[in-house]
Design brief:
Elements (H helix, E strand, L loop, with lengths): L2 E11 L7 E10 L2 E7 L5 H6 L2 E4 L3 E5 L1 E3 L20 H12 L4 H17 L2 E8 L8 H11 L2 E8 L18 H15 L8 E7 L7 H13 L7 E6 L3 H11 L3 H7 L7 E5 L5 H10 L2 E4 L1 H6 L7 H7 L3 E3 L12 H11 L11 H15 L16 E5 L13 H7 L7 E4 L2 E5 L2 E2 L4 H18 L4
Parallel strand pairs: 1-4, 1-5, 6-7, 7-8, 8-9, 9-10, 10-11, 11-12, 12-13
Antiparallel strand pairs: 1-2, 2-3, 5-14, 14-15, 15-16, 16-17
This protein binds zinc ion.
The site of zinc ion (ZN) has 7 residues, from loops.
Length: 463
């Protein structure tokens, strides 16, 4: 079995149970698993002599790969659309739905490939994606094919919308689907792609879109379907919740519940559920989520971009709610830079006046162990023997880290201007080395993606 040894890292951040931060750190990988972690002066002799490959990480900080728990990859095709630049969520969605209605299977493939590449280069090694409209024959299969090309660990969330405008929902009817067809396709993709094993590269999540775009019945049936595979199958549930005040008003008017209570009475709480945003959960709802171990995907940039508010992450973490990090859809960020998002997470909790509301180390914990917990994984998020061989490294000798990394390399990568990774290894495969993507040509990918973005805009009658 091939063995890779990485040694002489200026700092190796383990995120293990003791949160060890090792100066002059080293670790060994065998195939797709970490087998040894320690100081470079303590590497066992046989590891040193038998390694098939050795990487010297002097001048680098090595850490677990970051986990992205909420995104909509297809939105890389509609970033910075002029008409949606200065809108709150509902207006932003109503502007973009008609453009997204023109998506093709090729668009879904190229945007998935581009978003995952951007995520990979910014430190992500595992990502979920919440894709909830499937026009013109596009399918979750298009995303799994693209994820396979990039090599990032992928949790494909089979999203759905069934409550169109004619029924009092927000999206136009033409981007919604029939509920029986949604459930049939959910069953199909779980059976075809979902891998419950440790080190799985592919998992499926069932993910009706939001309170204002699906019926309570579809929420209940999706939960029943996910749980019908059994606890060992670990098929998780995901949706948007408590993102805006408008959504809260919608829930109260239509269902008679606040969003958190609505989720609870639908059975959408538990350690197999995580909700995106949760900006407007009240303290009682937060307590309920903590009791039931219901997870949250915190998406700071998107919440700022759409003027949704500040998610009470401090309160959630103190109460014991599992919190992961998400960049959210690229049309409301408008970036898929995961390291930059960790920085936003750190800064946004401080905006109200408390410099102790979030530390760099806690923000990094949310982006690694927090994301792993929310996705239901015990094999990623830390560098320790027996964990998946997913790691990243940043070069500390860059302009952005100058004068910072010399004091505290961990803090520097979060406080200073976010850089791209120098090294990325996923499932034991080196995907980025010396800052270069080893597979595929970035300029061609960008050109192809931009062509698709222009064509989509034209088909929607906007160019
Ligand atoms: Zn979202």
């Amino acid at each position: 079995m091939p063995t890779l040894l990485i040694h002489h890292a200026d700092l190796l951040i383990t995120m293990d149970a003791a949160r060890r931060e090792l100066r002059d750190g080293a670790l060994a990988l065998q195939d797709n698993m970490i087998t040894w972690v320690g100081g470079s002066n303590a590497i066992p002799a046989d590891l040193l002599s038998n390694a098939n490959r050795v990487i010297n990480a002097r001048g680098k900080v090595v850490l677990p790969g970051l986990v992205n728990t909420h995104h909509h990859f297809y939105q890389t095709l509609t970033r910075a659309i002029p008409a949606a630049q200065d809108a709150v969520l509902f207006d932003w969605l109503k502007t973009l739905y008609p453009i997204w209605a023109e998506l093709t299977p090729d668009d879904v493939h190229i945007s998935t490939q581009l978003a995952l590449t951007e995520l990979l280069l910014s430190g992500c090694t595992t990502s979920s994606d919440h894709h909830y409209l499937w026009p013109n024959g596009s399918r979750l299969d298009d995303q799994f094919a693209a994820a396979d090309v990039v090599g990032v660990r992928f949790h494909g969330a089979r999203g759905s919308m069934s409550l169109g405008e004619s029924q009092g929902g927000l999206p136009p009817d033409r981007v919604t689907e029939d509920e029986a067809a949604i459930l049939r396709d959910c069953q199909r993709v779980v059976e075809h792609y979902h891998d419950a094993n440790r080190f799985a590269m592919q998992r499926v999540v069932l993910a009706p879109c939001s309170p204002f775009s699906v019926t309570p019945d579809l929420m209940r049936q999706s939960a029943a379907l996910a749980r019908s595979f059994g606890a060992q199958a670990n098929v998780h549930l995901h949706t948007h919740l408590a993102e805006t005040k408008d959504e809260e008003d919608f829930c109260l008017a239509r269902f008679g519940y606040r969003p958190g209570d609505y989720a609870e009475q639908l059975g959408w709480t538990g350690d197999d559920v995580w909700h995106a945003h949760c900006v407007h959960l009240n303290p009682l709802e937060i307590e309920g989520f903590a009791r039931s171990h219901t997870g949250v995907a915190h998406c700071p940039s998107s919440n700022m971009r759409l003027a949704s508010g500040i998610a009470p992450v401090r309160l959630m973490r103190d109460a014991g709610v599992p919190v992961g990090l998400g960049v959210d859809g690229s049309a409301s960020n408008d970036s898929s830079h995961l390291l930059a998002e960790v920085r936003q997470c750190l800064l946004l909790q401080r905006v109200m006046g408390n410099p102790h509301a979030m530390t760099a180390r806690e923000a990094l914990e949310i982006a690694t162990l927090g994301g792993a917990a929310v996705l239901g994984r015990d094999d990623i998020g830390a560098l320790a023997p027996g964990m998946a061989a997913d790691l990243i490294a940043f070069d500390l000798n860059t302009l952005g880290y100058a004068g910072g990394a010399v004091h505290d390399p961990l803090a520097a990568i979060l406080f200073c201007h976010p850089q791209m990774v120098d090294l990325a290894i996923i499932n034991g495969r080196i995907l980025v080395q010396d800052g270069h993507l080893l597979a595929g040509e970035l300029p061609q990918l960008i050109e192809k993606h931009n062509h698709a973005a222009r064509a989509l805009y034209t088909r929607a009658g906007l160019a």
